Amino acid sequence: MAAVPEIHVAVGVIFRQGKVLIARRPEHVHQGGLLEFPGGKVEEGETVQQALVREIREETGLRIAPESLVPVIEVRHDYGDKRVFLDVWQTSSAEGEPEGREGQEIRWLDVRELTDVDFPVANRPIIRALRLPRQYAITGTVENEDAFVRRLQQSAECGGPELTLFRAPELSVEAYTRLAHRALEVCQATDAMLMLHGYPSLIEHLPQARGVHLPWREARQFATRPIADNYLLAVSCHNEGEIAHAVQLQADFITLGPVNPTPSHPGAHGMGWRRFRALVAASTVPVYALGGLSLTDIDEARGAGAQGIAGISFWWSDV
Ligand SMILES: Nc1nc2c([nH]c(=O)n2[C@@H]2O[C@H](COP(=O)(O)OP(=O)(O)OP(=O)(O)O)[C@@H](O)[C@H]2O)c(=O)[nH]1
Ligand SMILES: [Mg+2]
């Protein structure tokens, strides 16, 4: 049987005053009745930006400048009857008042109001990507518990990271759990999200955490998603096979690296941005670039299709 050709779809996430523009797909079309972001098929000879400007104009009447578009994520999905490549871009500078020009219902929704079941399945990673920040901050070595908590507090006071991974393989389970409780208190005060590092059952002892990040050696032991859907599941990946496994576990996001050689993993070669970009293209979940990166690498990472960067050195310095 001949392979079903992949359809290149330009998908536009239009932000205005913190909300995004959502439409309802007419009942009779593919994935009908579900919510969607405006957009449509990229036509022959068009760039994705041109397609977005055209589709958004046709479907909503809004005018967008192609240079205001910023990449969000690329999602490849096989619906069985159709294979789509959703090329997702965002803008916050659409002009005009939107109307459902094709008779579709439209409305502005807060990103937190977007729920998986209301959208086509292929949209899940888009919803994750819109909720996740550009930086995934990983904590450094714990030499002293009080100093560690002070360090976290200081960072929180100056508008610290939205998403932090509390990683401390040097601690015993008891010490980790004890310190995680303190770290969670700091994060809760500023509404920041804290991910636990290790194994799934940690979340049972620390249910206020946002989720669990599994190192690869842990992730490989599971065949299905090991934590509930209301938590975030993250997996550390280094190659195609690991990414495919993380997708199978329904990870909400992954880290991928090392992009550059890093002192925390001596001897490991950096994969470089070219290979990173190729691997990201094969991932259907948001990817954070990891390994020897600084804040100035965010644009490079995003240009390679990543959600952003993950790491210790760009935000953590020992006190
Ligand atoms: N616009 C849009 N399409 C999506 C989303 N998610 C998703 O799976 N798709 C799929 O992408 C494919 C193409 O989108 P479309 O139906 O909007 O295409 P279009 O505007 O060119 O419509 P047409 O069929 O009238 O030419 C559809 O199979 C649709 O199910 C989404 O969030 N927005
Ligand atoms: Mg459309």
What does this structure look like?
With 319 residues, the chain is an alpha/beta fold. Helix content is 26%, strand content 25%. It has helices spanning 48-60, 124-131, 145-157, 173-189, 202-205, 216-219, 240-248, 272-281, 298-303, and strands at residues 6-16, 19-24, 35-36, 39-41, 70-78, 83-91, 106-110, 135-138, 163-166, 193-197, 211-214, 232-237, 253-256, 287-290, 308-311. An 8-stranded parallel β-barrel has the order 8-9-10-11-12-13-14-15. Strands 1, 2, 3, 4, 5, 6 and 7 form a 7-stranded mixed beta sheet that branches. α8 links the parallel β13 (253-256) and β14. It starts with 5 loop residues before the first strand and ends in an 8-residue tail after the last strand. The structure holds 8-OXO-guanosine-5'-triphosphate (8GT) and magnesium ion. The site of magnesium ion (MG) has 4 residues, from β4 and α1. It catalyses: 8-oxo-dGTP + H2O = 8-oxo-dGMP + diphosphate + H(+); 8-oxo-GTP + H2O = 8-oxo-GMP + diphosphate + H(+). Keywords: DNA damage, DNA repair, DNA replication, Hydrolase, Magnesium, Metal-binding, Mutator protein. GO terms for molecular function: 8-oxo-7,8-dihydrodeoxyguanosine triphosphate pyrophosphatase activity; 8-oxo-7,8-dihydroguanosine triphosphate pyrophosphatase activity; 8-oxo-dGDP phosphatase activity; 8-oxo-GDP phosphatase activity; metal ion binding. Mg(2+) binds at residues 39, 59.
